[in-house]
Amino acid sequence: MFAKPFRVKSNTVMKGSDRRKLRADVSAAFPALSGDDVSALVPSKEELNVVKAYAHRGDAVTLYVLHKNPVFFEVEKHIYPTVYTLWRYPDTLPAFTTWPTVLQKLAGGADLMLPGVVVPSQGLPEVKQGDCCAITVVRNRAPVAVGTATMSTGEMQGLGMKGRGVSILHAYMDSLWAFGDKSGPPSIPAPHSEDCAEEECSGEGDVPEEAAPGPDGDSTTDTCCPDLQELSLNQGETEQGEEHGNEDGGTEEEKSPQEQMDILLLQCFLHALKSKVKKSELPLLTSTFLRNHMFSCCKGVESIVDVAWKHPELRSFCPPEESVSEEAPVDGSGDHDRPYHPPEITPLYVVSARLEPLFQDSQKRKGAVLSPEEVRTIITEYVKKNELVDEHNKNFININPALCDCLLEKSEYQEVEKLKWDDLFTSLHQTHRPWRTLPLERPLTDAVATSLPTQVTLIKNLELYGIDPAAMATTLQHRVQASTVLNPVPGSKDRVLVQIQGNQVQQVGSILLDQYQIPRKYIQGLEKGQKPGKKK
């Protein structure tokens, strides 16, 4: 029930009348507790809070907290003690004993299976189906879990100790235990069963593999947690574990620096994939993955404060001859070994609903994509077919009703009767909805956002031109000595915009025009650059 964190609804101090009712309920539910014990758990004057909460599955739970430790919890009008209470009064409930390795399963939400129960010499405790019972580990009477019996003791023995024995509600190391002071269980030896338990542990060393599986059939044999090592390991096992630890440490020290770095790189790679990268971010540039995800997973040295320039390895190292310069632009694939090639931009136009009548004869419908040459050819054929060339001056075109509706504004209907060929195509291209092939879908934007008292320059749509935004940010950062940030474009999964501090439009324009050779007509915002002030 408490394997995952629960949600607290309210936390209030308990009233006197509610305390008296709780004492009566506790006395009735747990006859093994004396009146003084109940008064110590539910005092009249000390701070006692009642916490209303919801478990991760939505079950309503009431917690009774004394001195910041939960002492009881109530589910469906049934009261159960917590491990903090059972550590003070271990004989409150009938207890079943299991192996320490099973505790991990219980804390994770698993129930206690009967093959994992250790049967002492005096036999199992007598319980009925639904009775509240505790779970202990061998050689320690301090309970580590609380639950309800799924069947009576006689039925357990009749089934040959197979099946589910106890339905676990609360265990040591779960979220209810973490709601308290997180103290560990005390060591409470069992005087009558200690010898028997030791014989079982030493004489039947292979029993835990068969007797301690969780509900999923696991057969874990590791120790459950550091806090319970004194409950599950004897001195010889502890020394053996230390020897193995020293051997493992020695093998790590014997590894070469290259092997250690490979292990660290693989660890960072897996860590980044597991906790940093989202499916929505794919495809992801390897350079972006390394810089934004893997480096953040590498803990250790974060900055270089000094360099031993006279070190023999550094002095003897010769850089490769074919190295890309620091500010040389690279293509958007992240491959820094190949030089950047400017994109080939082909302007295309989409037939809009307004212009569709002009292209019906050529079987071009709304949404058709045409090159400028195709547009010129189709319109020329349309003019000749409808005999719109002026008889007196062939440089002019007579405007018919179709051209009037498609190209002219309403204010020009009565004024314009003829158009030159050049004016016809210019007006046609302005009316067309522009469409360009990859890498351009919409214009590259250089916009200066004024947010007093600071200014920033934003650059977006770099990916459409095959430009790596990270490389662009690095180049700008080195050139203008200002901070740069990569931010995701709202509404886009695989595009980012480069933000650089200050009005850097002139420097951005210089890089795009000179280094990346992007045509000026595809760059918007160059007019927003800082203009040189007049000298007085």
TrEMBL record:
Keywords: Acetylation, Cytoplasm, Initiation factor, Phosphoprotein, Protein biosynthesis. Residues 344-431 form the DM2 domain. Residues 241-257 have a biased composition (Basic and acidic residues). Residues 196-209 have a biased composition (Acidic residues). One of its GO terms (molecular function) is translation initiation factor activity. InterPro entries: EIF2D, eIF2D_N, eIF2D_SUI1, Pre-PUA, PUA, PUA-like_sf, PUA_eIF2d-like, SUI1. CDD domains: eIF2D_C, eIF2D_N, PUA_eIF2d-like. It is found in: Cytoplasm. Residues 456-516 form the SUI1 domain. Its main location: cytoplasm. GO terms for biological process: formation of translation preinitiation complex. GO terms for cellular component: cytoplasm. The keyword Protein biosynthesis applies. Residues 184-258, 318-337 are annotated as: Disordered. Belongs to the eIF2D family. Translation initiation factor that is able to deliver tRNA to the P-site of the eukaryotic ribosome in a GTP-independent manner. The binding of Met-tRNA(I) occurs after the AUG codon finds its position in the P-site of 40S ribosomes, the situation that takes place during initiation complex formation on some specific RNAs. Its activity in tRNA binding with 40S subunits does not require the presence of the aminoacyl moiety. Possesses the unique ability to deliver non-Met (elongator) tRNAs into the P-site of the 40S subunit. This is Eukaryotic translation initiation factor 2D. It comes from Scleropages formosus (Asian bonytongue). The lineage of its organism: Eukaryota, Metazoa, Chordata, Craniata, Vertebrata. The gene is EIF2D.
